[in-house]
Amino acid sequence: MWRTATVREVIAESRSARTLALDVPGWPGHRAGQHLDLRLTAEDGYQAQRSYSVASAPELERLEITVEVVEDGEVSPYLAAEVRPGDQFEVRGPIGGHFTWSADEGGPVLLVAGGSGLVPLMAMLRHRAARASDAAMNVLISARSPEEALYRAELAELEGAAGLEVIWTWTRSAPQDWTGARGRVDGPLLEAAGFGDPSAVRCFACGPTPFVEHVLDLLVAGGYATAQIHAERFGPTGT
Amino acid sequence: MSPISRGFHGRRRDADPARVPPGQYVTPDFPVLSAGPTPHTPLERWSLQIDGAVDAPLRWTWEEFLALPAEPVTVDIHCVTKWSKLETSWVGVSLETLLDGVATEAAYVTAWSDGGYTTNVPLEDLTGGRAWVVHEYDGAPLEPEHGGPARLLVPHLYFWKSAKWLRGLTLTLADEPGFWETAGYHNHGDPWREQRYWND
Amino acid sequence: MNDLHLDGNGVAWLLDQITGAEATTTLRTCQACGDRRALGEHRAYRGAGVVLRCPSCQKVAVCIGIQGDHLTVRWHGTLRVPLPPQDAAPA
Hints:
The complex is a heterotrimer. Helix content of chain A is 20%, strand content 33%. Chain A has helices spanning 76-82, 118-130, 152-158, 187-193, 209-221, and strands at 3-12, 17-23, 35-41, 47-53, 63-68, 88-95, 109-114, 137-143, 164-170, 181-182, 202-208, 229-234. In chain B, strands 1, 4, 5, 8, 9 and 10 form a six-stranded mixed beta sheet that branches. Chain B has a five-stranded mixed beta sheet with strand order 3-2-11-6-7. Chain B is mainly beta. The radius of gyration of chain B is 17 Å and the shape is globular. Chain B has one domain (46-193): Oxidoreductase, molybdopterin-binding domain (Sulfite Oxidase, Chain A, domain 2, Alpha-Beta Complex), CATH 3.90.420. Chain C has one domain. The longest helix of chain C is centred in the first third of the chain and has 8 residues, at 12-19. The N and C termini of chain C lie far apart (48 Å). The chains are: A alpha/beta, B mainly beta, C mainly beta. Chains in contact: A-B, A-C, B-C. The A-C interface holds A 35, 37, 51, 92-93, 95-99, 209-210, 226, 230-237, 239 and C 2-14, 16, 22-25, 37-41, 46, 50, 66.
């Protein structure tokens, strides 16, 4: 069922992304990693629908999504550039049980994010922090540039927590004085982001389809079984 | 009643209503839709055939197909998912040319493609200058994601009938509903009568 | 090569309508290759409707016609649908 969502706050995350904080009366709650369907209605009744991962932890009172502008997109330019507090649309959810993590499930967990694939994984990281969980969690993030990276400051703060490691790699341009990884995620980087023995590790990989397919190949080559790996592919489509 | 999203319009374009079938909106984009992964048959292994209820099957290699007389085609196309694209330009071989000399009692055609896709069309919908097998789009060789090297083009029906990655046309005596037709879409698919779904 | 496919997570709402529950975690045994994988792991393609393909062998698993007020579902392979302990059906 569709519920009315009212925008309460708009937060700039990067050059091309904004977080929308929403009030959704009746929202039943969600698990970290789930998404919602979002529907816009134009004045003449025309509707467009897209799916967005929930960025906020389940513990947060308001619902947050982070929208990255897709060039020539139909919905994202509106959400990421036009929307103002007070604007309304509809959401449906939460949706998806396969790509979720709860602190009760413990670790170790390896998160691998490509671009906006970081959004559902951020919900997991925020949930972990909200529950003060010490489940071992490493997150490997591939981003094009610091201007396009999401949640950098918040991740730097979270990083101090016990059992959490954040590894960035930059595919286009790195921050000044960067001494860490650059370029596409590869086998050695994935190994460095892991926990040594892959056998007990749950992996969550999210991002554009080519990124996810590449990471899946690397994970399997690195000794992770398919049963341990959860993937969510983002793409240019809406149903 | 859905709340109106202030300022949202989408990427629709205004157009002459006479050119837009009921329930459609015009897009400047060319959305890529598919039932499966893009096939990549090497041209040296590609062929197009016409078979089934015919006296003698026909078969063209890629070189033979390109040597057939082709013509430019500019048409509007309409997808059952509600987008329409106007003035699309193609180059291809008309079905008149391909079916020239074919003797048959068949009234139906099943178009079949690399990857297993099928769709069914009455033979008479492919004649009368209303259908082509096209190999160019917008001045360049047809890209794989849009059905290259060659696809069927039947613009007067919803675009799922314009099978991508076409490899053959099988003439049949009985109508044989294809991939989407057996999943609840309309057997004929005339956008001007809004024949989207099987019970329409 | 970018296939433009998503996965079952991307069409989760549609699948939930069909199975009535959290479909993406439901396991499907492929009729073609015998592999058992979660629906969330299946590759999803958007044509007129939605097609899910087995992640192991790429054969069509589910074909979903999206038709206004209803779906038309063509299903291949078998699903494993766990029942809550108190509802376990007698053999």
